[in-house]
Design goal:
By secondary structure, the protein is of the alpha/beta class. Helices cover about 45% and strands about 15% of the residues.
Length: about 290
């Protein structure tokens, strides 16, 4: 029976996901297919490269550096994250991503990054065969509305995959995964609120379908959460979510705050690891 791992985004709340995935690595937890969106994709690829601890390490090291993320790169290049630094210098030179190991493991365990086509407003699911060769796809998946410029891939323009599909569990179900493990970055009390119609009109007036999707995102997200809860209650999904609200900035720079969120992910995962193994090993009742 195929198992799927679903990774929600959430910018620096992704430190929670990083903590959970490191615990998975330490316990030899494996899946048949993986789908990540935004930070879930950008950080999640480290699961297949087998680099335990890398996500929290490089974020604690580099986030606080001037010009890495925040208002400076936003003014200079229109992206809240310095593109060259974050997507080239760090993974290729300063804290090297093991793309060879990723390629080997991704051949057996397909990894998909979700992006949103700004012309159609629809989600697309791009299989990542090589992180280095497809870095722009990962960058597109994490390019937040209002805070990043669209990314061109094969002649089409894309932004944050979470706009059209915040939690891509339905995609993995269509891919034949009968058992799902879903890592969320919001606690169980969270309800998403609408984005500003005025900002949406100012930024995306040329992209009517994208604007519609963005303005409806809160409804789509809240409906997804309700469906995930139903799947969890029926035993069709195993959900790991923060045991308390995560109060951290989307572009958090404080290393200690990043570590606190990471450790919460580790703690929650360690507390559920036995139940998770039982879930993955048990055949469903007919």
């Amino acid at each position: 029976m195929k198992t799927g791992l679903v990774l929600e985004g959430g910018a620096m709340r992704g430190m929670y996901t990083a903590g959970v995935l490191d615990v998975f690595m330490e316990n030899n937890i494996e899946f048949d297919k993986i789908a990540g969106v935004s930070a879930g994709a950008i950080f999640g690829v480290n699961f297949l490269s087998g680099q335990n601890g890398r996500v929290i390490r490089y974020n604690m090291r580099f986030n606080k550096e001037k010009g890495y993320l925040g208002i400076i790169p936003l003014i200079r290049e229109g992206n809240v994250v310095n593109t060259d630094y974050a997507y080239r210098k760090v993974p290729c030179e300063l804290d090297v991503f093991d793309d060879g190991e990723y390629i080997k493991n991704a051949a057996e365990t397909p990894f998909y990054a979700v992006v949103t086509n700004i012309k159609t407003g629809c989600a697309e699911y791009k299989r990542i065969h090589s992180v280095f060769r497809q870095m722009d796809t990962l960058r597109a998946s994490g390019s937040m509305p209002f805070l990043a410029k669209p990314v061109e891939i094969d002649g089409k323009m894309y932004l944050d995959g979470a706009v059209a599909d915040s939690i891509p569990f339905a995609f993995l179900r269509r891919e034949g995964c009968k058992k799902l493990v879903v890592i969320l970055t919001r606690d169980i009390t969270f309800k998403k609120m609408p984005v500003s119609p005025l900002l949406t009109k100012i930024f995306y007036r040329k992209y009517k379908e994208f604007s519609k999707t963005l303005l409806n995102r809160h409804n789509s997200y809240n409906s997804q959460i309700s469906e995930i809860k139903r799947l969890e209650d029926s035993g069709e999904a195993f959900v790991i979510r923060p045991s308390k609200p995560i109060e951290i900035g989307r572009i958090e720079k404080d290393p200690e705050k990043l570590k606190e969120v990471y450790m919460l992910g580790r703690k929650d995962a360690e507390g559920l690891i036995t139940d998770l193994k039982d879930y993955l090993e048990t055949e469903p009742a007919l």
